[in-house]
Design goal:
Length: 104
Amino acid sequence: MTRYEELLLLSPELGTDECREIINNLSAVVEREGGSVLKIDDWGVKDTAYPVRKFNRGRYIRMEMNMPGKAVAELERNVRIADGVFKFITVKLADTPVETTEEA
């Protein structure tokens, strides 16, 4: 299993129940494909750097999950057809944390 992170930008017009429904549907896709959702962070409604679909704000959701690589395509397909999702990005996380060294 590989660790992935999904960052979603949802419409600020969506209610709490609608956001929860989108997240539950995406979590079900991950589990159906043999993965598991480790963490879901709701960062709330924040300003965007530029207008997205004529909105200057959006709700940010971060999902961290373990899933096989073939499941990424199915997850992204479901994100694309979900109403209310403006943008998304899926990132493969490093197996081990990267340590940085500070030089003086």
